Known about the structure:
There is one protein chain. This protein is mainly α. The chain is built from 4 helices and no strands. The longest helix has 21 residues, at 21-41.
Amino acid sequence: MKATISLEGIWQFLQSLNLSNRSKEWLADKLIESTYDKKEEIEYISKEEILAGIDAGLKDMKAGRTRPAEELLEELRNGL
Length: 80
């Protein structure tokens, strides 16, 4: 069974608990820690980096610096 509760409902529930300051600090630390964990997982690439990569790839193709797709796929399967 899935239950849904609003953030306000969660806040009211937490307020109703008789938590010590130490417990409140622990809870706050866990919430802050979880937000940092999520941010570290995200890696952004700028538009300029994307365009530079495409440009480099096109220049490699024109210069004949290519390899068969099968070779690339095999490399990806083997984890580089």
